[in-house]
Amino acid sequence: MGLKSHQFDTGISYKEYTESEIEHKWKIDKLNELKTSIDEIKELIGLISSLTNKTIILIFDDFYFIPKSIQPYLVDYFHRLTKSNNFFLKIGTVKHRTRLYKQTD
User: How many domains does one find in the chain?
Assistant: First the structure.
């Protein structure tokens, strides 16, 4: 913040204030963040399962309400969590409104 003071011959002074605002933006790739923490989350799920001596079942019902563009990524992420763990995934959806994998070349 800057401050300037000017004197006039009349003996009256005034002060001029200036303000500035700085905005920062960070782009965070949420999918990448989740992928890098997947081992920690799998370990936590395994720990919870072993401490409770229970099987964990995650059920996605009406999965077709999730936008089709992110459905394959969500399925892939949770499928990775279920690998080699006492954790199971069940998806309830409508076939023609669902995209479970991304088709690439």
Answer: 1
